[in-house]
Design goal:
Layout (H helix, E strand, L loop, with lengths): L2 E5 L4 E6 L7 E7 L3 H11 L4 E6 L11 H14 L4 E5 L3 H12 L5 H17 L1
Parallel strand pairs: 1-4, 4-5
Antiparallel strand pairs: 1-2, 2-3
């Protein structure tokens, strides 16, 4: 199964894929204003079966600041892309992505690496 994960941001949206494997790979970052059309094309080109969207939460597990904006984005996304969408808690994904950035030596943007962390967490949980 091919997954696309989304790390939503107000300026940029990070994307990651798994290419049918159990390993998430950073894909790219796209401007928020073009995100849905870009995601539509990527889902077609990469034969995506399911989308995983990072949902921010605070350390006490309550909804993060962007939660409502992300839910609205996902509703718009679902209107354009007829694929199942799951949410994955992205708590501490920024910290993990920061540690991974040194390994990528500038090959990927931070948003895409954060999307890969979200997807890897999802894949690890869901086998």
């Amino acid at each position: 199964m091919n997954y696309l994960s989304i790390d939503y941001g107000t300026k940029n949206v990070g994307l990651a894929v798994n290419n049918g494997t159990e390993i998430a790979f950073p894909f790219k970052s796209v401007p928020n204003k073009n995100a849905i059309s870009e995601i539509f094309e990527i889902c077609d080109e990469e034969m995506i079966d399911r989308i995983v969207v990072g949902m921010p939460s605070k350390m006490d597990r309550t909804a993060g600041a962007l939660a409502e904006e992300i839910k609205a984005f996902v509703e718009n996304l679902k209107e354009e892309i007829k694929l199942p969408v799951d949410f994955e808690d992205e708590i501490l994904s920024s910290e993990q992505a920061g540690k991974m950035m040194a390994d990528y030596s500038g090959k990927y943007e931070k948003d895409a690496v954060e999307a890969a962390v979200i997807l890897q967490t999802y894949l690890d949980k869901n086998g």
